[in-house]
Amino acid sequence: MKHSAFFWFVLPSAVAMLLFIFFPIVSVVVQSLHSAHEQVIIEVENCGPFGCTTATAIDQEATATLRQDQPLGRFAGLEIYKDRNHLATAQIGPLWEQSTGIGDFIGKLMNLPFYKAIGFTLTFTFVVTPLTIIFGFIIAVAVNSAARAIRGPLIFFSLLPMMVTPLIGSLILFWMVDARGILGTTLRWLTDDPSLSVKADTGLMWIMLMVYGVWHSAPFAFIVYYAGLQTVNTDTLEAARIDGASRWQQIRHVVIPHLLPLTTFIALMQLMDNFRVFEPIVSFNASAHATSLSWAIYNDLGGETQQLSSAAATSVLTIIGVAILLSPVLIRTYRDYGKAA
Amino acid sequence: MNLRHILMTGSFLVAASASTSMAADCGIDSGRLSIVGNEFPAIQTVASNSQACDGLSEAKANLTADHQKINLAGMQGDPAEYTTAIVANSSIVALMNEDVIRPLDDLVAAYGQDIPKNQLITINGQVMAVAFMANAQHLVYRKDILEQIGMEPPKTYEDMLATAEKVRAEGILEYPLGGAYMAGWNLAQEFVNMYIGHGGEFYEPGTAQVSINNDAGLATLEMLKSLSAYMNPDYLTHDSNATSAEWEAGNVALMNMWGSRTGVLMDSEGSTPEVYENTMVGAPMTVAGGNAPASTLWWDGWTVAKNISDEDAAATFKAMKHGISSAILNDETMGQAVWMIDGYQPAPVNEGVFSAISMQTTPYPMLPHHGLLHTALGDNIADFLQGKESAEQALSDIEAAYMTAAKEKGFVN
Questions:
Q1: Are A58 and B91 inside 8 Å of each other by CB?
Q2: Looking at the structure, do residues B56 and B167 belong to the same domain, yes or no?
Q3: pLDDT tens digit sequence for B166-210
């Protein structure tokens, strides 16, 4: 392709990426390096239906001058990244010294909001991603070997969890595992424990969130694998059969190697998606048991006083986290392409 | 531009379905009205009556439980999307902090001379909001269950524990207490109530330095934990809506609940006669021998955005004033709230809030940095209630989380 043709070809998407991805990230990074101005507080008398009280308020005139001088706020450098609500660099050392062992240290570390969030986020990512891939593959193989007449309806039903809006899907599961819901009651009956409650137990809540994660994203893996299965070379399969390969051997030695590039693709997408786990925590009201990085951002912005810099710092840490997670897969893909070329 | 049209059509549909009131003459020739506010029956009444004013070039309302997440962003633009925000004594602070609402003195002088003085919320001598209703959390109880066990409605939280124990011991209900204890805002609110009941002070006098790691703080956490032992084990996922649903299902005998939500519990919808006929309200309870109720007083009122034209501000003021005039009171709207409107006749359902006012319950603190403490409380109490950490640890976590946030926002050094 000519250079000029290439330029015009990628220009629209390059502009879109600059506008909607690059500039917002720059703005988030800048925001995370600044904190709010020192507040000019004045004492005021507040009167209302319940009488008068002395309280404080922000002096808006003084603040307006400060804002005019430094519209971004005070430059804080990496202070916000290092504070207790993020990386807590000053707190970790003392915690290590107080701890009796590595288990005790991790327990204490999980009391800090950022590490609590990343603890759940990573567990979720590394449990849900492989399970999604395995279930997606099993469903794809099963649907592919079903009779042609029922494949259409089967595909439709297998895709349903992905079509349901995440918030609605998780609400449905939330009510089903309620102590008086169908799954909650069944669990009580199965375990013979009348006080068992999924919503009250941290471990069970984690399991439920992960079950939801797999339920919601397995259809994505399924549809990608199903499309891949249509391209498996039938000659190779037939040759394998003539050589006396069992069904399992055909899958292991013909189908799986053929689908490996797709697995890389699904793993990439799922790692990114699962690292941003958010909706189930909100709709399961699970924040007492599990928090994630995305939830922490939401929590910073959702309070009565918005903590923009704190949310920005967590966002940048999330981006760094995604980059670290994806780097092995990306490096591998890059090398493969290198070989091919 | 198309997107804007689609969005506007959406909000017009909402507006159209909400406004069932007849058109009214409010003395408006032109100007815009765009309301953002919380969603409960009393606010819906005010919004639909304001929208019914003749002469508005645009009249819409966006009422949602998530109003606090959108009102600030919707008022920072110039011109602001929302010309008025319906707020309470906690949420007005966030708008004041960012300087997005205008003083109303000139508008009151020109068009609002007849608004009673006690409805005007003045901050530093300037009218910033007009209140129209009062709210508080107070006792709600089941008369039949208390009669069955032969006990009076509790006056203190200690009595409440004893009553709950008896209800459980007699095998009537396994989890007799209810409460909006969902981790986050609701749970933090219960802490604020109980801490005030214990006579605690949130800050070192005259500063934004938090000081809750003290005896009152410890006693507060212990009381919350004792109460939670009598609640449905899922209590950390129950907000006000879920708690009301538990009540209507007949699973709860006693709870501390918002006055603005008791009307729904006492009407015949969504429940059986056994429950709604026996639902009674009582005064807010005290704790640990204190005189001040372990509750907070709230007002709900409306503000006017700063970044709008004088014409829009005047139109919004007149329309909202009509929305809280005596004309809106009828049989249906009378019991929706403790209105501060002339002609309001208190109903039995409102007695809880009236008791809260007459017992001189403390109003919820209106301090510019208190929202940060509320968030820190909401994030850190659940660990203690679940037995994952000690009360001292929970209090020191709250203090540390608050101080970090307050430092970032410039309230402390």
A1: no
A2: no
A3: 999 999 999 999 999 999 999 999 999 999 999 999 999 888 999
Angle made by CA atoms A36, A42, A45, in degrees to the nearest 5: 130
Residue with tokens 């995305």: A294
Task: Read off the pLDDT of residues A314-341 as tens digits, 9 standing for 90 and up.
Answer: 999 999 999 998 898 788 778 877 665 4
Q: Is the pLDDT of residue A97 over 60?
A: yes
CB–CB of A50 and B96 under 8 A?
A: no
**Shared domain check, B323 and B374:** no
pLDDT at A331: 86
Query: Does residue B246 share a domain with residue B191?
Result: yes
> DSSP letter at A273?
H
Of B97, B131, B184, the CB nearest to A49: B131
Residue B391 in domain: yes
Q: Which of B69, B182, B411 sits opposite A285 (nearest CB)?
A: B182
CATH code at B76? 3.40.190.10
A305 phi and psi angles, rounded to 5 deg: -105, 115
Question: Going by DSSP bridges, is the β-strand pair A51-58/B126-142 parallel, antiparallel, or unpaired?
Answer: unpaired
Q: Are residues B215 and B163 in the same domain?
A: yes
- A57 — contact with chain B (CB < 8 Å)? yes
Which of A53, A113, A305 is opposite residue B371, by nearest beta carbon? Answer: A305
B16 lies in some domain: yes
pLDDT digits (tens, 9 = 90+) for B331-390: 888 888 899 988 898 888 889 999 999 999 999 999 999 999 999 999 999 999 999 999
Interface pTM, i.e. ipTM: 0.87
Question: Which residues 181-240 of A are in CB contact (within 8 Å) with B?
Answer: 195, 197, 199-200, 202
Q: Are residues B149 and B106 both part of a single domain?
A: no
Cα four-point dihedral sign B230, B236, B237, B241? positive
Q: How many CB atoms lie within 10 A of CB B346?
A: 13
Whether A288 and chain B come into contact, CB under 8 Å, resolves to yes
Strand (E) positions, chain A?
Answer: 34-35, 41-48, 51-58, 74-75
Give the bridge partners for B53, in sequence order.
B24
| A36-68 as b/e: b if 16+ CB within 10 A | bbebbbeebebbbbbeeeebbbbbbeebeebee
B9 touches chain A (CB under 8 A): no
Which amino acid type is present at position B5? H
Instruction: Provide the number of CB pairs (under 8 Å) joining chain A to chain B.
Output: 160
Shared domain check, B368 and B246: yes
Number of CB atoms found within 10 A of residue B228's CB: 20
- Domain region containing B334: 2-135+297-354
- Give the mean pLDDT of B399-412: 93
Task: Indicate the pairing of strand B32-37 with strand A74-75.
Answer: unpaired
Contact B237, B159 (CB under 8 A): no
Query: Domain boundaries in chain A?
Result: 102-284+291-340
Same domain, B50 and B122: yes
Tokens describing residue A297 = 């951002």
Domain identity same for B211 and B233:
yes
| Residue B413 in domain | no
The residues in B 322-381 lying below 8 A from A, measured between CB atoms, are 340, 357, 363, 365-369, 371-372, 374-375, 379
CB contact under 8 A, B94 and A178: no
Range 5-44 of A in CB contact (< 8 A) with B: 35-39, 41-42, 44
Q: Would you tell me which CATH number, out of the four given (3.30.360.10, 3.40.190.10, 2.60.120.10, 1.10.3720.10), belongs to the domain A102-284+291-340?
A: 1.10.3720.10
Domain finish residue from B318, B334, B354 = B354
Res B250: pLDDT: 93
What is the number of domains present in chain B? 2
